[in-house]
Amino acid sequence: MSASSPFSALSLSPRLTPVNFTVLEFPVGIGIHPHIKLKPEVLNLDVEENLVYESNHYRQNVADRLFKLLMISRINRIPLRIVDTLKWNLGLPQDYVQSLVPEFPDYFRVTDGGSSTSCGLNSDLNLELVCWRTELTVSAIEKKEKGYEKGMPIVFPMHFSGGAEMDKKMKKWVDDWQRLPYISPCENACHLGPNTDESDRWAVAVMHEVLNLFVGNSVRG
Q: Which end of the chain is less crowded, N or C, counting CB atoms within 10 A of the terminal residue's CB?
């Protein structure tokens, strides 16, 4: 059913606001219930959304987001079932496997047990990185730091709720932790020991960057 097709009013909740719909009445006695059709202004929004999905700027932007997410993952491969849960956050089209992935063969591919496939939504399939793009390894927080060079510290923005207090011991630990070198989320962190301040720095960098990849939920600071 297309967005412009009328449908039975009985299929909608009676609590839905009529501002977006037009009711189509039929003559009494012919056995057809009233139908509802979206108003022209709503249909225009649908057209505009489809135009955005088809634009080169959008497709390049969303491909870069997906590409960077794969770069951040430790093995540069993510199961499609996980990517599916992030579709809305990343701004991916509903049919990204069929419509977007094949358009960027130098970025990523869908694989199944090491064998490349053209498309599919099987839970056993993975989205895999094809190449490495150095220009995309620069994180959002690195871009904001003027004169930043590898090995320098970067202070993560911290915001506390009203009335929250930090004792002196904790504040000193946080201050010392913020002075540690920044570790890029794209960096292989296998050499970092578990439960160390350095591994925590890397984990926070990963979370900060992932949130920046989400449409409408970018980290400020």
A: N
Secondary structure letter of residue 133 according to DSSP = -
Q: Residue 116: beta bridge partners?
A: 111
Cα gap 101→63, rounded to integer Å? 8
The residues spanned by each domain of the chain are: 38-136, 138-216
- State pLDDT tens for residues 167-203: 899 999 999 999 999 999 998 888 888 889 999 999 9
To the nearest 10°, report the CA torsion of 164, 141, 54, 57: 140
Residue 184 contacts residue 139 (beta carbons within 8 Å): yes
Backbone angles phi, psi at 218, to 5 degrees: -65, 145
- pTM exceeds 0.85 for this model: no
